[in-house]
Design a protein that fits this description.
Elements: E1 6-11, E2 26-31, E3 46-54, E4 58-65, E5 70-76, H1 84-91, E6 103-104, H2 109-112, E7 124-130, E8 134-140, E9 147-152, E10 172-173, E11 188-196, E12 200-208, E13 214-222, E14 240-244, E15 274-279
Protein name: Regulator of chromosome condensation 1/beta-lactamase-inhibitor protein II
Organism: Pycnoporus cinnabarinus (Cinnabar-red polypore)
Keywords: Repeat
């Protein structure tokens, strides 16, 4: 049964990030193309588009299938590693406009050596976010901490590598627990929200028992000279954390890649001059 909705995109398209099949800018909303599908059609058994994240020249789409599983598709520029190693391998010999369609993203944490856990076989992708040339993916596992994966450029500490610029591995696990003081090791860490500006990132996390005592925290890293991470004197550490009194996070949209980006818990705004929307046929 085909999906009753489609995805359209418009704007800048120099690296094929609109997934319209070419690299021409789109002055009006145009149907996107998923690999193996006709323009405007979604892959088989898609029930919903849970999230879309836009970087400078790359796009992530999180699709929810009818069986409840989630899959990441991506389009555009992956030259800085922001779409993982498998994406570059897929488009290497596929033609000039190979990056101009959405392709399934394969992020094998076990094969990449960044995480070896039997629970990975049951993990679910819950959130995606995109910075300028960086991407973030949140995995949830049964009875385990959520995992935040970062990949791509690290020019402004985007990967949260602890002061070592540029992670050696293409996929990097962000060590969120290191930023939370006085934590209880018997409590699970859950990621409630994730958002990224061009060069800074904010995560809203919960630390606690499923139905018992818990605390919530806002963690941030990256560039902060315009106050994106709050009133921090000098260069911020790897993480800047503050305990949140309630789950909601103030919402403000970034103005420009070098402007006054502020914290946000809403859908991550794309820094490039394009947009995407879902549309239902009349």
């Amino acid at each position: 049964m085909p999906a009753s909705f489609s995805l359209h995109a418009a704007g800048s398209n120099a690296r094929g990030q609109l997934a319209t099949g070419n690299r021409n800018d789109a002055l009006r909303f145009t149907p996107t193309i998923f690999f193996g599908c006709q323009p405007g059609a979604l892959p088989p058994d898609v029930a919903a588009i849970d999230h879309i994240a836009c970087g400078a020249n790359h796009t992530l789409a999180l699709l929810r299938m009818r069986d409840g599983t989630t899959h990441i598709w991506a389009a555009g520029d992956g030259s800085r590693g922001q779409l993982g190693p498998s994406y570059l391998a897929d488009i290497e010999h596929a033609g000039e406009d190979a990056s101009a369609v959405f392709r399934p993203l394969r992020l094998d944490l076990r094969a990449s050596g960044v995480l070896d856990d039997p629970a990975l076989d049951q993990c679910t992708v819950r959130f995606v976010a995109a910075g300028w040339e960086t991407s973030y993916v949140v995995f949830s596992r049964p009875a385990r901490d959520d995992v935040l994966l970062a990949m791509g450029a690290d020019d402004f500490g985007n990967l949260a590598t602890g002061g070592s610029r540029g992670a050696k591995q293409p996929l990097h696990i962000v060590r969120l627990r290191d930023a939370i003081p006085h934590q209880h090791t018997d409590r699970l860490l859950s990621i409630l929200a994730l958002t990224a500006g061009p060069h800074h990132t904010l995560v809203h996390v919960r630390l606690g028992l499923q139905d018992g005592p818990h605390s919530t925290h806002i963690l941030g890293w990256g560039t902060a000279r315009h106050g994106q991470l709050g009133p921090i004197p000098g260069r911020p550490p790897t993480f800047v954390s503050s305990r949140a009194s309630s789950p909601p996070i103030p919402t403000t949209s970034p103005k420009s890649p070098s402007g006054t980006n502020t914290r946000s818990s809403s859908t991550p705004p794309g820094p490039s001059s394009r947009s995407a929307q879902t549309a239902r046929p009349s």
